[in-house]
Design brief:
- Its main location: membrane.
- Keywords: Cell membrane, Membrane, Transmembrane, Transmembrane helix, Transport.
- By secondary structure, the protein is mostly helical.
- Helices cover 72% and strands 1% of the residues.
- The protein has two domains: 74 residues, no CATH class; 231 residues, Orthogonal Bundle (MetI-like fold), CATH 1.10.3720.
- It is built from 16 helices and two strands.
- Helix 1 packs antiparallel against helix 16, helix 7 crosses helix 9 and helix 9 crosses helix 11.
- It is globular.
- It starts with a helix and ends in a 9-residue tail after the last helix.
Length: 346
């Protein structure tokens, strides 16, 4: 086991470098980089153009070669790509993620600032998905083919077919002060008077604001986990050892809890570490935009659109590293859940 973990950790380094190298190479060919966007901002009409002309950077509607060189130095594009990539990897090794071109904050500070919003949405979605889907999937497997199985399957499928953004829009119209009921706020993580509320009031206000976005996010995840749970339990229920236990007179509840449940939960529990860690960094652009939640999804989208390369590469490095470690934890959990599984090669 320890040898396997050591080999996986060694493999993590070239995998991480490969992902960073491919992404870095792609963004070199994407038009409209930060220098081009700054030139466009300086040359466009309005206040920014007047300010640039007064500062001497804009002459006769054009940027001089000296000023272009200064902009390249400012954004770090005066160095060859390989040198810039090597500098970036060296900084990332020390967890120095760089500074945003447009936010004028370090990438670490930006992620720290946006993380609570995405964590709130991701963790609530994660826990509710597991707490609803596993009992529901077990009940559907035990009552396979019954009216409950059919009706619940149709309800789950209906939630899966409706995109989360559309469902969120419907919830806002119905319950967010649209055309019908104003039961929930239209957006934001907390209310304007959050600081003046008591602890109980703060918890109530927070849950009140998270109700609609979490509902919209959970609805789309129910079908996959529910069907997976049902299929895994059905497969175990139909195995020979279950028929043998029934023939020996064991109670059905004992068969389900002590035998079927333990074996069927292996593929579900082993995916728990990756899903749990991923919930910390879940950023849904559409949900965050619809409910005015300034989280990691919106930050990533703005970084790509503005060509904010430090934010793009810094967040990619953090998310990829956490994802690879989560996959390792998932593999380790196999041997923890089922002692019959080991990585010793024997």
């Amino acid at each position: 086991m320890w040898r396997y973990i050591f080999h996986r950790l060694l493999l993590l380094i070239p995998t991480l470098l490969g992902i960073l190298a491919v992404t870095f190479a792609i963004i070199q060919f994407v038009p409209g980089g930060p220098v081009e966007q700054m030139v466009q901002q300086l040359t466009q009409s309005g206040l920014s153009g007047e300010t640039a002309a007064k500062s001497g950077m804009l002459k006769n509607g054009r940027i001089s070669a000296e000023d272009m060189a200064a902009l390249n130095v400012l954004y770090g594009f005066d160095k060859p790509p390989l040198e810039r990539f090597a500098d970036m990897v060296a900084r990332f090794a020390c967890f120095d993620l760089g500074t945003s071109f447009f936010h004028h904050q370090t990438v670490f500070e930006l992620v720290k600032e946006k993380l609570p919003v995405s964590m709130s949405l991701g963790l609530w979605t994660f826990f509710l998905t597991y707490f609803i889907c596993i009992p529901l999937g077990i009940a559907k497997a035990v009552k396979d083919g019954s009216r409950f199985d059919v009706v619940s399957g149709m309800a789950v499928l209906a939630g899966y077919t409706v995109p989360p953004f559309v469902l969120g829009l419907v919830l806002l119209v119905l319950f967010g002060g649209g055309s019908f009921f104003a039961w929930f706020p239209q957006g934001g993580l907390t209310g304007d008077d959050f600081g003046q509320l008591s602890w109980a009031g703060k918890i109530k206000d927070y849950l009140w604001h998270m109700a609609l976005p979490v509902t919209a996010s959970v609805a789309g995840n129910l079908a996959v986990m529910t069907v997976l749970t049902k299929n895994v339990f059905l497969e175990e229920i139909r195995r020979q050892y279950v028929y043998t236990a029934r023939a020996k007179g064991f109670p059905e509840r004992q068969i389900l809890t002590k035998h079927v449940f333990r074996n069927a939960m292996i593929p579900l529990i082993t995916g728990f570490p990756a899903a749990f860690i991923g919930a910390f960094f879940t950023g849904s652009l559409l949900i965050e935009t619809l409910f005015s939640l300034d989280g990691l999804g919106l930050l990533s989208y703005e970084a790509v659109m503005k060509r904010d390369y430090p934010v793009v590469m810094g967040t990619l490095y953090v998310f990829t590293l956490m994802g690879l470690l989560a996959k390792l934890l998932s593999d380790i959990s196999y041997s923890w859940v089922d002692p019959r599984i080991h990585f010793g090669g024997k």
